[in-house]
Write a structure and sequence with these properties.
It holds the Pfam family SBP_bac_5. By secondary structure, the protein is of the alpha+beta class. It has 15 helices and 21 strands. The chain folds into three domains: about 130 residues, 3-Layer(aba) Sandwich (D-Maltodextrin-Binding Protein, domain 2); about 110 residues, Dipeptide-binding Protein, Domain 1 (Dipeptide-binding Protein, domain 1, Alpha-Beta Complex), CATH 3.90.76.10; about 240 residues, Roll (Dipeptide-binding Protein, domain 3). The radius of gyration is 23 Å and the shape is globular.
Amino acid sequence: MLAATAACSGSGGGGGSKDTLVVYTGQAGDFQLNFNPYSPTFIEGMGTINEPLFFFNIAADQPPKPMLGTAFKWNDDGTELSITLRDNVSWSDGEKFTAEDVVFTLDMVAKNPALNKTAYKGTATATDDTHVVVEFPEPAYMDGPQVLGQMWIMPEHIWKNVATPATEVNPKPVGTGPFVLGDFKAQSFTLKANPKYWGGEPAVKQVRYLSLSGNQAGVDALKAGSIDWQTGPIPDIKDIEKNYPGYKAITLPLNQVSLYTCSNAQMGCQGAQTDPAVRRAIYYGMNRTQINSLAFQNVNSEMSPGFTLQPRDAALLSSKLTDRMAPMTQNIAKAGELLTSAGYVKGADGIYAKDGKPLTLTVKVVAGWTDYITALETLSQQLIQIGIKITPQQLSWNEWADARGRGQFELLIDSVEQGPAPDPYYTYAYFFSTTATAPVGQAAFPNYSRFSNPVVDNALAELKKTDRGNPARQQHYDAIQVELEKYMPYIPVLTGGIPNEYNDKAFTGWPTKDDLYAFPAVWKRPDASQVYMKLKPAGK
């Protein structure tokens, strides 16, 4: 069924019409209908259907690109943000887009903690149809890229009737973006070019998203020429042009591969991983060089326990860290010392225990994510050597995402993501702030570890008040990095080199290392929409 879907899709790789782009995001298992860009289980919509005001390119240091907004300006003390909007924009249902839609969206986020990833506290006012002023109770420079680049503008005339925006699945999405929803099936759905798009109808007339069984199925689809773009590992990626004729690849560092832990017993987390000593023992029990070789074809790189993205944030790396970078080799003695000091005793079977409970943990992973599965299989062998037993548990993406959101896991492998601008502030605000989490059983987004730390929260509050580039920021970066190394709610593995394979024979206009107009990952939103708009069928 899947092969037929791909082969008949009309992609450049699959034959037939060349104006359909077939993509694979890594989705393993059926798609669940959800086009709400504010939902933790959305499947698409950010940038493609619902647009931000500006596009901030984290792949290159460039000025923000005007989208629904055309200009913005802060007042002198960073408490007021004035935004000019594009005129003559229509929603895909024909209604006119105005400043009231922007005000409605910002108010909706402010009133719903589940939507509010960085504790946005602004008050938005429309001064006319094309101007919005956002006032903040204190300087809020760091809210700029979030408000301007990560707030997906929703149509007031529809969403004012949505009672619970955090759980709405938005089955018939209406947006201002370059695409509208076409057909939807559990194994594939399509976005169709919006002929009335303010920026001009895209040359790619249709994007078809496929659900496959995992990374190996993605490799098989590349070999068959039935997909045009995927973000995921393939064997011998350095020889892609020889092994997969017509395809090219680009790999860039972006996300930070980590073991997520449900870390906070006070919020309902259960298991030995709620003990920081256990988390730190796992950190020292890793042989990252071996994991990189066996699971990631050595395309990943060192990672800092302070979660600054290296090498991008080299200037912000704290001198107060014990380990500036996570050790690439295993330290069995250090791991044992941490566990013994915390009251764990090694049993006759070599596994540590405390209060009669052996140190055994389950780690959840998406079935078909072969690189992560290999990483966990390798890690499980390594951790046995330090007296900890982990058991990988493979789930469908939907089950895994639900467990991640609700905190119903001990360990889980995933990547910690970056924010809308090249600054670790956003990673900290998303994944480590008390405002971005919730008790176990409730959906947290995206502080899935349930980490809550007053030092981190206070440092984030101070960072929000100071503009990027101000040297006074470093003391707050230092404070955060020290706490993250100390408590490790997300246990650092490696900085992920994100591999992308694309059909260069069928479509032109892909991002290259010489022209990184967006970060090239099919699941990176809104970057993927920038790519879709830039692509042209070959020969056109």
